[in-house]
Amino acid sequence: MADTSIGTPEQLRDPHYTPALHKAIPLGIQHVLAMFISNVTPAIIIAGAAGFGFGSDAGAQGFPDMTYLIQMSMLFAGIATLFQTVGLGPVGARLPIVQGTSFAFIPIMIPLVAGKGVEALPALFGGVLVGGLFHAFLGMFIGKIRFALPPLVTGLVVTMIGLALVKVGIQYAAGGVPAIDKPEYGSLLNWSAALVVVFVTLGLKFYARGMLSVSAVVIGILVGYLYAMAVGMVTIDGIANSWSRAVGLAFPIPFKYGFELSFAAVIGFCLMSFVSAVETVGDVSGITKGGAGREATDVEIQGATYADGLGTAIAGIFGGFPNTSFSQNVGLIAMTQVMSRHVVTIGAIFLIVCGLIPKVGAIIRTIPIEVLGGGVIVMFGMVVAAGISMLSDVNWNRRNMVIFAIALSVGLGLQLDPKAVQYLPDTLRILMTSGLLPAALIAIVLNLLLPEELAAESTEEVSGGLSGHGDGSLKG
Question: Are residues 437 and 106 in contact, defined by beta-carbon separation less than 8 angstroms?
Fold first, then answer.
């Protein structure tokens, strides 16, 4: 139920309404807390995959680079959010849309940077830039391509994203990839820190209300951080060292890591832009329905897509990752019933300020990877759950079951055994071993090509057809 002390019901449904500052500022910060950890996690994962993140041999030398990536994640999430809330010509929906670093691109980015250090970043950010421009271009005809991405395809892709990432959560909770061959990997101490985060997050999510529930993951990680300090996983000296090594104020540097166009990166980012664009369409529709009780207009959907792409492209220039609308903030709007875009603008300004202060990124970097792992397990598990929820809208007839089965088998199989395509050219191998792109392409192509007439046949028929028995069993 909406808080009428903030404004009248009509005012709360108006995106252009500005609540009193003493109300608007806490509401804006609440939006930041709801997405903060999700926003910086991709930077930490990519730094770790490249080899200059937590616990790696290059960790000390890579301190400035990892801090910078975290800093850019905050800064350009704020800037991209301003594109949505304030707008710039045709860019932006002028709605309370919170932008943040997208999880969807992580399965594409990891193979591009795996073990290559900062030398892999020029090609990565070249892909982010071109992919962002392509994403913005999709805004011109986003409504016309939605037919190619029904819930069968988008649900499969989101599920695949989550399945590709859950392994990362388990590895983080156990001690991180660099520690896999060390005796402490998977120790009770490591797991205890992760489980503290999981249990605190679950407790707050289901037994608390208001901001405590919304900020459950952030508070869970904070409690896990305090626990890690108590058991000696974090030291005051380590925190002080990170704080002292970070400068007080720093601005983004264009092409800090150089610029390189990699065919694998460009193709990967452009293809994933389709999925990200449709995700944004869904979030815009969710905001207008949940907050204002109406359908989103074509202008709002087009403007939101432009903002998505432009925010990503500009982030790529300065060393940021792809941005997308954050669904958890859509849920927050539905819960608070506060539709004001100016509230989210305040949150965006807060993110920008954090992004300009490297000490914030330096402190985030001191979070033990095991503690972060607890939060990641929850977040990535929710990605899988969101994909399954989308798939619940699918009519599971023979046609759709076959499409899903083939796409999932190929995509997940290539993720589990990358060596199966080790003799492919490097560019194609990188795209294939992500698992996500082949699964998405197979699902899209089969969905467009297979005749709808098969939809009339029941799932019982397919079960019988696969097994050769009318009872639906898989004997044979």
Answer: no
Give a three-class secondary structure readout of the chain: CCCCCCCCHHHHCCCCCCCCHHHHHHHHHHHHHHHHHHHHHHHHHHHHHHCCCCCCCCCCCCHHHHHHHHHHHHHHHHHHHHHHHCCECCECCCCCCCEEECCCCHHHHHHHHCCCHHHHHHHHHHHHHHHHHHHHHHCCCHHHHHHHCCHHHHHHHHHHHHHHHHHHHHHHHHCCHHHCCCCCCCCHHHHHHHHHHHHHHHHHHHHCCHHHHHCHHHHHHHHHHHHHHHCCCCCHHHHHHHHHHCCCCCCCCCCCCCCCCCHHHHHHHHHHHHHHHHHHHHHHHHHHHHHHCCCCCHHHHHHHHHHHHHHHHHHHHHCCCCEEECHHHHHHHHHHCCCCHHHHHHHHHHHHHHHCCHHHHHHHHCCCHHHHHHHHHHHHHHHHHHHHHHHCCCCCCHHHHHHHHHHHHHHHHHHHCHHHHCCCCHHHHHHHHCCHHHHHHHHHHHHHHCCHHHHHCCHHHHHHHHHCCCCCCCCC
The whole-number pLDDT of residue 22 equals: 83
Alpha-carbon gap, residue 142 to 191, rounded angstroms: 44
How many Å from the N-terminal Cα to the C-terminal Cα in the chain?
A: 56
Please compute Rg for the chain using Cα positions.
22
- Alpha carbons 17 and 398: distance in angstroms, whole number: 49
- Taking only the tens place, the pLDDT of each residue in 417-457 is 888 988 988 878 888 887 888 888 899 899 999 987 544 45
* Predicted confidence (pLDDT) at residue 147 exceeds the cutoff of 90: no
Cα–Cα distance, 126 to 475 (Å, whole number): 51
Q: 75, 123, 113: which is closest to 257 by C-alpha?
A: 123
Residues near 119 by Cβ (< 8 Å), separated by ≥ 6? none
Percent of the chain with pLDDT over 90: 36
Q: Which of 83, 386, 138 lies closest to 276 in space, CA to CA?
A: 138
Contact indicator for 332, 214 with CB cutoff of 8 Å:
yes
Return d(Cα 412, Cα 107) in angstroms, integer: 12
Place of tokens 């792409």: 309
